[in-house]
Amino acid sequence: MEEILAIKHLSKSFTIHNLDKHIEALHDISIDINEGEFVGITGKSGSGKSTVFKCIYRTYAPQKGSIWYNSKKFGPLNLAEISERQMIYLRKFEIGYVSQFLSIMPRTTAQEIVKQAVLEMGYVEAYAEQEANDMLEHFELDRELWDCHPSTFSGGEKLRLNIARAMVKRPRLLLLDEPTASLDHASKLKVRELIEQLKSEGTTMLGIFHDIEFMENLCSREYTMRAGKLTAFENLT
């Protein structure tokens, strides 16, 4: 099985100048991930889980270490050092990110948000619209909301839309940051169903979860973050 991601000795810290504080968020994180794996990460709030993902997605720049990603287009790349243009390409075509928060352009409808994700990959309008509709239907987003702006949505509706936008692109690497945080049980099952489908199609995934039951029989491997350090999670019961 070919390696798709190799994080080596990753460290990240933050300085809060007005409080004169220096916070070590990540300490010497190392992990290798093969194509098609689904790696789950648990841990308390503030332990550094999301910081790992933001370093991979280059929202944050790490102080130390490397993040080697085996790109379909470029070959092996250190995400900690690549150009902004390369990173934009990877976000558009290869690496997806689902967070708990929906960030969108003003006056954009729910349907347009998901459809645009397909269009920017080069597909034609008719195909993009059908894919968007299928994804919105899968997550049971009421059709009356499709032409509405998501600012009017509930937290759960926004999260379902955010997941739909990322998953419709079927990225090679998908980062899931608490994708079930504010969802009811039925919606969680819809997320799990799509994760299983993407796994069968070869998508590699890293997921942050508080819901241990959701991870059961889904992950290839599980880890725990404690105070910025990553360790194998030995017991899911």
From TrEMBL:
Keywords: ATP-binding, Nucleotide-binding. Residues 5-236 form the ABC transporter domain. The keyword Nuclease does not apply. One of its GO terms (cellular component) is plasma membrane. It holds the Pfam family ABC_tran. It comes from the Bacteria. InterPro entries: AAA+_ATPase (IPR003593), ABC_transporter-like_ATP-bd (IPR003439), ABC_transpr_LolD-like (IPR015854), P-loop_NTPase (IPR027417). GO terms for molecular function: ATP binding; ATP hydrolysis activity; transmembrane transporter activity. This is ATP-binding cassette domain-containing protein. It comes from Desulfosporosinus fructosivorans.
